[in-house]
Amino acid sequence: MALARPPSMATAERPRLSLAALAGKLLPGAGSRLVCSYDGVTLQAALATRNGGSITLSATASTQAADLAQAVAELRRACTTGGTQPVVACLATPQVVTVCLDLGVDPAKPRPAREMTELVRWDMESEVATAAANWTVTDLLALRGDLQRDCIADLHAEAAQEGLQGNGTIARRAAEIAVERGLVTREAATAAGRALSRLVTTEEDLICAWAPQPAGRSGGTAAWLCAAIGRNARDEWQAAFADARLRLEWLYPAAGTATLPLLRAQSGTTREVLVEMQGATVSVLVASGGRIRALQSASARGGDGAAVAAELCEKVIDPRTGRVAVAGPAAWAEAVRSGLSSPVEVVAVSADPLPGLAAHALGLAGRDLLARLPATDPPPPPWRRPDALRWAAVALTLLALAGVETSIRLKIHANQQRLAQLDREFDEMLQRNQETQKQIDAVNQKKRELATLEKQVDETQMQIGLIQDVLMVREKMIPSLVTALQRAVNDDVFLLSISETETNSSIFELRGWGLTDTAVHLFTSRLAQSVARLGLNIGPREDLRRGRDRLDVDGYLFSVRLMRTQVAAPPPPKPPSPTPPRRRKT
To answer: In 3-state terms, what secondary structure has residue 168?
Structure first.
């Protein structure tokens, strides 16, 4: 029997109106989140933007920087696209441990938040300790890519032969053996040790969250999806994001984020087993009707986790199971299939946790599909703050001042009404004066434009006269020059080109070819006699050298310039026509 949806106070994420939440909605990029995922070594992120009922993810950026603040700052710069900078972020990390607990609390009638916190913390302390024991130095070295997973089992076996006890102690000795053999560097082992100290929670102060599931249990219990993280770990992440000018809104468990799109797509009573691997932990979730019914986690035992995942699946597979969805590559799904004895369909799905995380953070997935933790403590109610009385006195004082100010403002308003009437009359007179002044300015502008046009007409007429005089001179000179060239040219000289240069004092430049230099000299002397009547003389030959003409005949190439002997002064400009005197207005 399906239970009704519980009220919002059944979880630790009770919605509240705060200035931070209001600012997050009003700031640019309020419809976007920087969704981040951490696997113990690599921090990856993408900018998720909600467009109605869909989500757009930017390109994924990742970093393995040891300093969390530096890593978050790098991802923020990498995910800033189109000028839109993220201001709110959420993070999925294996430090948030999640389990499905059977609690004697009816989701329709939840207990107060303080009682629920104590009840959940009682069970989560042991779960957090168990999850912390799953992480080893060798697992982190494998995640960093410094150590092959095939070598982990042999290193652990060699370390166990020395009589060591405890998985963590054996793993540390195995890492030392790997350093001694040169399989990994000392710096890599040290970095893995620092990452391990961040992942292992040893404190007792846990922050818990819970989300009710509609699956009922026998004996009056109900399924609750619970999550917990150490306060120091949460504060460390919150400070890292704050240093990068980001407000960390929610902390999510790593388990369940990659397969969250499958939960959203489920319908009816379809039963599926979802397999995920987060770092050194393998998680198996049983889902039906779009909700999580059970969740189990175990250590990958230094391998790739396929055998562990198969063992966990065997415990939860029953005749109602439709398929097993493995979040990972097809090879890992095939390894899980080979370890199962039940004939059930095994499919590989995407192991990227960012799409599911973005859908839940932006409100496109059911809020109770995952148990998430607020990144900051909720503020206390106003009446419990130590400065409440002081602010109450300040408020009363402000109210009294407001009353006095209101009476003064009423008197001022009456005076302003009388002044407003006078202002309107003054504005009307001022407007009439301004209109009159505009008309006077327009008349003066027209007068200036008329004088400018008259001046332009006079200048144009003068230029037309100059052009006409020049054309008359050229009309007489060009035919005379052609006639002079015809008289000067003999049978042994050919003109190749004639051009008008107008550089220095020369006006024409002649280029030609002569059979002999004597023919060239004869041509220039005849030309000098012919152009003398035109007021021109021949300048020195700039070029006289042997060369061939267009018919490839050997001879002399030459160039001659015709230069002015006198320059005629341009005709004087015509005086402008006198402007008749203007009549005075009477």
So the answer is: helix
* Dihedral of alpha carbons 114, 119, 125, 131, sign: negative
Same domain, residue pair 405 and 482: no
* Together in a domain, 413 and 482: no
- For residue 497, being part of any structural domain is answered with yes
- Residue 549 has phi, psi (to 5 degrees) of -90, -170
Shared domain check, 544 and 490: yes
Q: Does 386 or 33 have the greater pLDDT score?
A: 33
412-436 pLDDT tens trace: 999 999 999 999 999 999 999 999 9
Judgement on whether residues 480 and 558 belong to the same structural domain of the protein? yes
Q: Token digits for 555?
A: 């001879």
Same-domain check for residues 486 and 560:
yes
104 part of a folded domain: no
Alpha helices in 200-305 (DSSP H): 231-243, 260-265
Q: Which two tokens stand for residue 580?
A: 């008749």
pTM: 0.60
- Count how many domains the chain has: 2
Residues 6+ apart with CB under 8 A from 119: 103, 105, 111
Residue 549 belongs to domain with CATH number: 3.30.1360
**CA-based angle 109:112:116, to the nearest 5?**
95
C-alpha distances in Å from residue 470, one per residue of 111, 457, 532, 573: 109, 20, 20, 14
Q: How do 247-253 and 88-93 pair as beta strands?
A: parallel
pLDDT at 93 over 70: yes
Query: Which residue spans within 3-162 are E strands per DSSP?
Result: 32-38, 43-51, 54-57, 61-63, 88-93, 97-103
Residue-range definition of the domain harbouring residue 485: 476-564
Q: Is residue 1 part of a domain?
A: no
Inter-CA distances, 117 with 123, 205, 372, 380, 478, Å: 10, 12, 14, 16, 111
Tokens linked to 528? 């000098």
pLDDT in tens, 332-361: 888 888 888 878 888 888 888 899 999 999
In a domain, 294, yes or no: no
- Quick count: other Cβ atoms within 10 Å of Cβ 168? 17
